[in-house]
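Hi R.,

Here's the chain you asked about this morning:
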Amino acid sequence: MKNIIRFLFLFLLTCLSSTSFAAEEKPAADNSNNNMPINIEADRMESMKKENAVIFKGNVDAKQGELIIRSDEMTVYYLSEAEKAAQPAGDARKIKKLFATGNVEINNQGWVATGDNMEYFELERKVLITGNTKVWQDNNLVTGDSVLLYLDEGKSVVERSDKKGERVKAFFYPGGENPNEKK
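And here is the predicted structure, written out as tokens:
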């Protein structure tokens, strides 16, 4: 569970923050992925200047280095010029929040997280993945209705759904091998 939490923290930090990059085996201070181009493809893009937002719809595929986020729709809210001017010196953040909805899949270096929705809030530095959430590496798996990540605290909370009998479930296999899986 600790490795999955660590991955989620590092993975989403890589994806959503322009201030640091972290990979599974690298410290959070490694900035090597920051300058890689971000490529977003979709069936449609709408720019909403008043709302400081861009909406990508239909087969959204966002990539930065080895990081891939797929969803049916993604809305990126960026900082206004006034908000950027008010940032402390050296703060290069441009994103305020990001929402991905519908068949969300996040992939990075062998780790996969899926859910119905993903929300990222830059100012609070937290990520929420909701709806049929699954996170796995190799054969290790954690499931729940939602995963909330507090990026600066290195803390995560996996919640069950309100449905009777539903619980958070974790499946860990020593050495990463599932004995029930046929080779």
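One quick note: The first strand starts at residue 39 and ends at 41.

Cheers,
M.
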